Amino acid sequence: MAKFGELISSNIPVLIDFYAELENTTDDLHSVLRDVAAALGDKAKVVKIDIAKNETLVNALRVKGNPTFIIYKDGEMKWRQIGDQDANTLINLVERYV
């Protein structure tokens, strides 16, 4: 959890994707997140967190769906959504907090 606290305390937006490895869905999501990261460059961080490997964090944040996207800035949650999002939507959301 200490590393997570350091990660979200960044003064640039941090888009976190809480995901679970499922057939047929992860490849599409990975390509969406690659596009988001490429478009945002150094203006934001894009991080993927595997739900199965981070149960304590997932429980603490009450992550219930796959995928769950959360944007943090300066340690504060700015936006949260469960379900698939397209790259343009995520880019526009993150850019609100740049």
Verbal overview:
The chain is of the alpha+beta class. It has a single domain (2-95), classed as Glutaredoxin. It has helices at 2-8, 26-40, 55-60, 87-95, and strands at residues 14-19, 45-50, 68-73, 76-82. A hairpin with a 2-residue loop joins strand 3 and strand 4 (76-82). 23% of the residues are buried.
Tell me the layout of helices and strands.
Blueprint: H1 2-8, E1 14-19, H2 26-40, E2 45-50, H3 55-60, E3 68-73, E4 76-82, H4 87-95
Parallel strand pairs: 1-2
Antiparallel strand pairs: 1-3, 3-4
What's the CATH H-level superfamily name?
Glutaredoxin
Q: How many structural domains can be distinguished in the coordinates?
A: 1
* Overall average pLDDT: 91
Largest sheet: 4 strands, mixed
Keywords, please?
98 residues; alpha+beta; globular
Précis, in short:
With 98 residues, the chain is α+β, with helices and mostly antiparallel strands. It has 4 helices and 4 strands; from the N terminus they run αβαβαββα. It is globular, with a radius of gyration of 13 Å.
